[in-house]
């Protein structure tokens, strides 16, 4: 394949119309469901190797790290991506932050306050399960702040993301794009399975009733924050296997670009080997 | 097998002599290396299922959580346990905290200050990669605090662990017991492999020279903090496959004892299903 998956799934610059982007698509999928899953496992191993190098770099003073931002409507599969894609990486190198409804304490701060505290440390693959974008999504749809306050946030987000990039963070933002119909199927599946019923809340259906408003809020957010330093990818997510493969591949491409290298030893290897070999076996 | 692995590997009450505990042992191993690894995979799947239930419980207001404390000499395999055992669990339900040399800021606080901040949230499987025990291990061997200060810490640790237990934390403390000889082999292996050289520091050999002092410090720590609420397990760790299986099995037994249950829905399932089915397909 000629183009990278990142080029292919990068959100359009300029006006964004989500209805023009097919949530059931599978561009560049390496094959059917089984073949794609197999490719995802192979990508996962490569990702684990690359992340280990990034971790080593961070351990020895490097500043680079990756932040995967996951956004999407309820049931779009943020949790599934964490389990199946991020789960392929050594958990020691992963830090996951979930952003639920802000607490009273968090609400007394600027909306980016709680986000800054969760930016991954050097060497880590950080994941945001929801993020600062909630403050221009539900924040906008539910009018949780004055319109002019929300309006200002897009620029604040771009500034924040630029700062993080300057500090060594590579930001990858994925919108998990599902159809209105698919969400209904998945909510019904949650209701039908006791093992999933705990994930459901009646309020999920109230949010679903605002689907068009949320889609518009996503379009606006993507339009206004789809920068080159922190690009948005729109991931067709009606097919879970495609969604997982695509995000794994985008992460792999991102890490390959970073090309982290194992640090060279700052000590004399032979000298240290002799120190070990020469010690008495007295204990 | 009659006894649980927890009973079998529980550190002795009363005086502890690590030289009497075989680091190459493999008590209750389900078979040879391959069979034991296969058993570990099966335990890992069970562990993932149980942890998901614990997570669900925490998501719906439960307070319970598990904290795995990993301690052991350099190269004893703390990182390997995280990768191979903890890696079997959905990363969304895992929180890992590493305790390195304290920073200047941390040193201005009580030694438990930085530890309290990392206690896992309800529903989580927390892992401490090193822990507050460093303050009675390297703290003691390197005399990083006055003897009477260190002496007081054992009781402070027991009190802290009791508090956490009261708050819903089940604490599992594992000492990864390796032989002096095995450590040498592993340090040499690090020096021989470019992919591992970054993990080595010349100071590791200086610490190794204090092996008997560290073993005594471990014996004292285990003797004085091996409480029923926060028991110590001594894990024979010269064989990596045994070590991984044993800790996975101990975690599995611990979660099975907790017996986390999927929360019952607090809504009327049928009513919500009808709400979904009755909505117009207008979007």
UniProtKB/TrEMBL annotation, chains A, B:
Regions that span the bilayer: none
UniProt keyword annotations, A-Z: Kinase, Transferase
InterPro entries attached to this UniProt entry: P-loop_NTPase (IPR027417), Polyphosphate_phosphotransfera (IPR016898), PPK2-rel_1 (IPR022300), PPK2-related (IPR022488)
Name of a matching Pfam family: PPK2
Gene Ontology biological process terms from the UniProt entry: polyphosphate metabolic process
Annotated spans, Disordered: 13-34
Keyword Transferase attributed: yes
Segments forming domain Polyphosphate kinase-2-related: 32-258
Basic and acidic residues composition-biased segments: 21-34
Ligase keyword on record: no
Origin superkingdom: Bacteria
GO molecular function: polyphosphate kinase activity
Protein name: Polyphosphate kinase 2 family protein
